[in-house]
């Protein structure tokens, strides 16, 4: 995986998601995508398709 690839981290505010974000940042990944429920409803198929 390239350091500039887009990576979406669901649950970035939780214990596991925040640990994933910290680890990726420490490994110099630069294009991390995070959204909370108010900005992206993962149960809304059309919203998810537009996001990606």
Folded structure, characterized:
This protein has 52 residues and is mainly α. The protein has one domain. It contains 2 helices and 2 strands, in the order E-H-E-H. Strands 1-2 form a two-stranded parallel ribbon. Strand 1, helix 1 and strand 2 (32-33) form a beta-alpha-beta unit.
Query: What is the share of helical residues?
Result: 25-40%
**Largest sheet: spatial strand order:** 1-2
Give a count of the beta strands, DSSP E runs of length 2 or more.
Answer: 2
Low-confidence stretches: none
* Distance, first to last CA: 18 Å
Which structural class fits the helix and strand makeup? mainly alpha
Q: Encode the helix/strand succession as letters.
A: EHEH
Mean pLDDT: 93
What is the domain tally?
1
How many H/I helical runs? 2
Shape: flat
The percent range for strand residues is: 5-15%
> What is Rg?
12 Å
The biggest sheet amounts to:
2 strands, parallel
State the main characteristics:
52 residues, mainly alpha, two-stranded parallel sheet, 2 helices, 37% helix, flat
Topology overview:
Elements: E1 7-8, H1 15-26, E2 32-33, H2 45-51
Parallel strand pairs: 1-2
In short:
The protein has 52 residues and is mostly helical.
């Amino acid at each position: 995986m390239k350091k500039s690839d887009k990576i979406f981290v669901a649950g970035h505010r939780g214990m596991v998601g925040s640990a994933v974000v910290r680890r990726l940042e420490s490994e110099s990944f630069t294009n991390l995508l995070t959204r909370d429920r108010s900005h992206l409803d993962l149960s809304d198929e059309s919203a998810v398709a537009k996001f990606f």
